[in-house]
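Data availability (excerpt). The following record was deposited with the supplementary files.
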Amino acid sequence: MNTEVILKTKIEGLGGEADIVKVRPGYARNFLLPRGLAIPATKASKHQIERLRQIRAEREANELNTANEYARKINKMTLTFQVQAGDSFDKIFGSVTSQDIMERLAKEGLNVDRKRIKLYHPLKELKEHEVEINLHPEVKATLRVVLALSKADQERLEALKAQQEAEAKELEEKRKNRGKRPARSKASSTEKSAEAAQ
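Predicted structure:
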């Protein structure tokens, strides 16, 4: 049989301040009550509900304001991650995960829970990605994340492109020269016909 308690603080998956919830007696006795997260739902304790509702309203308003402020900043932001590529530059080493994005946002002063970053698979392509962040049930933001080559790989790629261009020019020169036969001088053809006559 479940027991009724009044929550004094927000608990994920259970409820917020002033909510009267039914929980298992052991959960209430061993976890919620000793930690001061809830009080037993008695007639005497129900008068505290109004004060708890006021605390909840203030907390929710505060959370909404913070989420809106974060959304404004995130929507204007672009995070660039420099990554290393393989020898052929068609694949990158590693990937960018929601953990990486969370850490970079923290460096920008934005503390966002990793679970709120909607990244269905790690980012692995060298391009700009749009990542949705659910900051609040009513507030979403879109973050631009760019995966770019590291400076060393960028220099390596430029050197490779320059080499390929030089090789292509050389090949083109060879093709042009192959079509042209060297012009024979008249003297050499006269000498050959004189030799044939003897």
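Summary of structural features: The chain has five helices and seven strands.
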